[in-house]
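As promised in the previous annual report, we have extended the structural survey to additional targets. Below is the entry for Histidine--tRNA ligase.
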Amino acid sequence: MLTKAPRGTKDITPKDAYKWNYVENKFREICSLFGYEEMRTPIFEHTELFKRSVGDTTDIVQKEMYSFTDKGERDITLKPEGTAGVVRAFIENKLYADTQPTKLFYITPCFRYERPQAGRQRQFHQFGIEALGSDKPSLDAEVIALAVQFFNEVGLKDLAVSINSVGCPTCRAEYNAKLKEYLDAKSDVLCETCLERKDKNPMRVIDCKNPTCKENLTDIPFMVDHICDDCKDHFEKLQTYLKEMDINFVVDKTIVRGLDYYKKTAFEIISNDIGSQSTVCGGGRYDGLVEQLGGPKGVSGIGFAIGAERLLLTMENNNIEIENPYATDIFIVTIGDEAKTKSFKLLKDLRTNHISAENDHLDRSVKAQFKYSDKINAKFTIVIGDDELANDTATLKNMSTSEQITIKLSEIVKELKTRL
Ligand code: ATP
Ligand code: MG
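The corresponding structure token record, generated without further manual editing, is:
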């Protein structure tokens, strides 16, 4: 028990941590190219925030949240996704009062109580962006372009970008009525979940994975075929901008976002590269969310989230190599106590000059120290023994050529700077 991490969690050991650093740094770099700045929010929030923002009828809120009551009797939940906290922080810190739009990104762990399997954990990580304060389709195009460039730059090139419009409150009311009428007539063939959705959140029936529902609902009406002129214009402009950037996309009428505050654009990016049948990125416009969470009226937003574990899995399946930047320049082999003491000044000089350096911590024999130097792939080994001590020199050995020179201790840094 003590030596076993909780179910659904994973350690990221040095064998993998550099890969995480790579994708995180790449994400930061791309966000910065597009003018997005980092927002960090707490790991836990008031449970009510997620109920309101993610939505009462979703799997996340109904079954997956890590919720608890804290010692002050507050209902607290570990964040199951990134948007709610960022939007809460946007409101609380009055970022809407600054020049708009507000363009934010985050990298965060998330927590969902789910059955663990490949690419599905209880603690996982999301990279995401949120762009608030403009409802113009140019922002939608920018958000999609950012995701596409990020995937391309980490080596995933074969992407399927699917977009849809889920309308707005005006056109959705009319559509929902039509959809409900259609679903009422199909009541006898709907699965139990869909029967419930039909009344609470009819659009989510389109999302049902149950084969019987799928089979019987082939002529289900789609929102995008019933959108109003304003939504249509928005959707068309988005497509024009995407074409201008040569971003290939398809309109997928089945992409839904069931909650009321979602509006207009919804999109998904699927990697067609091997071993990734699932969505690597999902996003959409949430024009009512800021107001719903107690912020000012009419502040719209759009964002996406990328599952980091699935991103890394997909990269691995496609044999995308990430170089491990870890490298030691120098290992200092010392012979005897006095030499060991002397090595500390040299270590300090090297490290101060940003030359990475290590020495022995296990009182190894000289032979074993050389072996260790080999194992950590040091570029040079410096030897300090009795002779060297007497002359204030050291032996500098190039580990790849085995070339060896004797050099004054005071000149090592200068010499290495020309050689590394
Ligand atoms: P799924 O259908 O796989 O359960 P979801 O619809 O619940 O996904 P979102 O809420 O849209 O997923 O989260 C965005 C991304 O986060 C997903 O595309 C996925 O990559 C990742 N993700 C979601 N849940 C998990 C999890 N339990 N473990 C690892 N990654 C996850
Ligand atoms: Mg899920």
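Residues 14-33 form the longest helix (20 residues). The radius of gyration is 28 Å. These points will be discussed at the next consortium meeting with the crystallography subgroup.
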